Amino acid sequence: MAITGSRTHGAPPHVSSSLVSRLIERHSRELALACDASSAITWRDERAVRVLGVRAGQRLTELACPGAEEKLGIFCDRAKREPLEGWELCMLAGDRPVTLVCASVPEPDGSGFAIFASVLPEEIVAVSASTSDALREVDSLNRELARQGRELLRVNHELSESNRGIVQLHDELAQRAEEAATSAEVKSRLVANVSHEFRTPIHSILGLSQLLLDETDGPLTEEQRTQVRFVRSAAEELALLVNDMLDLARLESGIASVRASKFSIGELFETLRGMLRPLLPADSRVQLSIDAPAEDVVLETDRGKIAQVLRNLVTNGIKYTEQGEVRVDVTASATDVRIAVVDTGMGISPNDLPRVFEEFYRAPAAAHLRGTGLGLPLSRKLAELLGGAIEVESELGKGSSFTLVLPRVHPEVRTVEEIRARGSVRDPSRQAVLVVEDDRKTIFVYERYLSLAGYQVIPARSIADARALLNEVNPAAIVLDIMLEGETSWEFLSEVKSSPATRDIPVLVVTVMNREQKARALGADEFWLKPLDQDRLLRRLQQIPRRSSPTKVLVIDDDPRARYLVRRLLDGTAFGLIEAETGHEGVRLAHDQQPQVIILDFLLEETPTTASGRMTAFDVIDALKSDPRTRPIPVIILSSHALGDAERQRLAQTTESILSKENLSRELAMQRIRDALHKAGIHPVSSPGNGG
């Protein structure tokens, strides 16, 4: 880049251009060379000398790093004939390799070429090399898995007994594949490469090998079936490796979900026995003991993730135990359960023990055994997702004990049960909202901000629960998710809107499927895609007419004569009047009384009798709009002051209308109040004889 003497782009007045030039010369990563037709260097700039140590007459190909000679020779040969760009070349700077991104231009007469190059930072080179090493490691693992596939043939006759475990394993693999398909990112470059480069061909290998085993295109000989089984078993092992890496990335990025259900330890262990028995060959010297406790223990958490953790721990125990026993023990208290996987294998040294949960870490004593170092880190993160932890004890040469410690009821399940318990006790001061949603985190979010806005949330995690609750309570609205676990709610939506008892209840559909046309056709009052903006939901709920509730009007005015005038104007109407003399009192009454309309004096002049000081009309509006409980209440400004344009523009954004005290009449006041109520979706009950 040229340094000019212009005022706009030159050096600062107190810094000489020569100093800037020396600074650029010292730190620039660009360099230039010129070579003749034999690739001998005829000219080089100072940076080329400084970075590469080249000399005139030296052939460029002599600088190639070991293994890069052919590529550099091709570059020199083509550079004599055509312009080149973006070539990454590895050259030696003394005994140190340097990676250059090169561009070249040939001499018109073919007598040579010029090179302009930029030195790549060592960090980028290191990342590229690390990725290549990782891919080579995965390729090596694939070959190792293929050699180990023969072990599965010995247990083929036990597949019928292991059917339940295999089905469970397939369900977990399908769940991981679905989550991976919807995941926008993975945390590291390695996981992204493995996912993109390996998962699709692995699935193709599994599918095609199964077609061959099913003899879709004709029978196979026994030797051919043996060979296809080798291929399929190797692909299954590699698929497990890739899926473990993807699971780890999901857990680290916080997008993994918990699918809780009730099950017993006995049922879980029965599945594990069928799933893990094929891992032990018939002549194995390791005994596997998975015995359920005498008194069965019931859990309510994610069964699939517990099975995944225990499978990893037991697999490790078998792998590191040449002879002896791998045993699974269970102890339980009223709130927690401890599942210990104990082996009599090689054990872990005290120096290696603190690092066993590091990703890709392999203890030196276990370096000869196959593995990637992902099983234990993944298991610990799964345990943390379930609200628990993994404890480890080990002695080198005697064995190890890994204990999964979990709450018997997952914290999300407990939170939803608490919400359900609160919803079962009806609060007559709050409008009930029936939330039909199977995701516990979403129910928790609804409960948090709807309860702050003055509503009582009644959760239902299934259609059966929703039907039962509708027989007990008449909610002000129903928030409905279409895609529930194992079912959809289209039929329930149709039932609600076709029944005379429930057809008037507003149904607000909030889901991930863009099926608005169908939802509207079945009677949905609103349709929104997740994630839902909470203010949008609150505004819509505030528009729902409040059944059998008196229409309350709050007047905030420091002038008793103005309050008296409004009181007389509304006398004999359906509106109940609440009066506040100060802004602080008005905000408190709005919070406690929940009026349907607020009439606010613009020239509010109150004496600062409290530590919080004086409140202007704008202060009152800000306080009302910052609280979810009072934000939807419409505000009418009452003023005897000629407002400026800036004041009118600001008030127009936060209030419904502006009334002048000089022109205030009964008819005008009633009309403005009714307009505000209509916008809020509130329909007051008219009093007989008041003229409306």
UniProtKB/TrEMBL annotation:
<dbReference type="InterPro" id="IPR003661">
    <property type="entry name" value="HisK_dim/P_dom"/>
</dbReference>
<feature type="modified residue" description="4-aspartylphosphate">
    <location>
        <position position="601"/>
    </location>
</feature>
<dbReference type="Pfam" id="PF02518">
    <property type="entry name" value="HATPase_c"/>
</dbReference>
<keyword id="KW-0418">Kinase</keyword>
<dbReference type="GO" id="GO:0000155">
    <property type="term" value="F:phosphorelay sensor kinase activity"/>
</dbReference>
<keyword id="KW-0808">Transferase</keyword>
<dbReference type="InterPro" id="IPR005467">
    <property type="entry name" value="His_kinase_dom"/>
</dbReference>
<dbReference type="InterPro" id="IPR036890">
    <property type="entry name" value="HATPase_C_sf"/>
</dbReference>
<dbReference type="InterPro" id="IPR011006">
    <property type="entry name" value="CheY-like_superfamily"/>
</dbReference>
<dbReference type="InterPro" id="IPR001789">
    <property type="entry name" value="Sig_transdc_resp-reg_receiver"/>
</dbReference>
<feature type="domain" description="Response regulatory">
    <location>
        <begin position="432"/>
        <end position="545"/>
    </location>
</feature>
<dbReference type="Pfam" id="PF00512">
    <property type="entry name" value="HisKA"/>
</dbReference>
<dbReference type="Pfam" id="PF00072">
    <property type="entry name" value="Response_reg"/>
</dbReference>
<dbReference type="InterPro" id="IPR003594">
    <property type="entry name" value="HATPase_dom"/>
</dbReference>
<keyword id="KW-0597">Phosphoprotein</keyword>
<protein>
    <recommendedName>
        <fullName>histidine kinase</fullName>
        <ecNumber>2.7.13.3</ecNumber>
    </recommendedName>
</protein>
<dbReference type="InterPro" id="IPR036097">
    <property type="entry name" value="HisK_dim/P_sf"/>
</dbReference>
<feature type="domain" description="Histidine kinase">
    <location>
        <begin position="193"/>
        <end position="410"/>
    </location>
</feature>
<feature type="domain" description="Response regulatory">
    <location>
        <begin position="552"/>
        <end position="681"/>
    </location>
</feature>
<dbReference type="InterPro" id="IPR004358">
    <property type="entry name" value="Sig_transdc_His_kin-like_C"/>
</dbReference>
<feature type="modified residue" description="4-aspartylphosphate">
    <location>
        <position position="481"/>
    </location>
</feature>
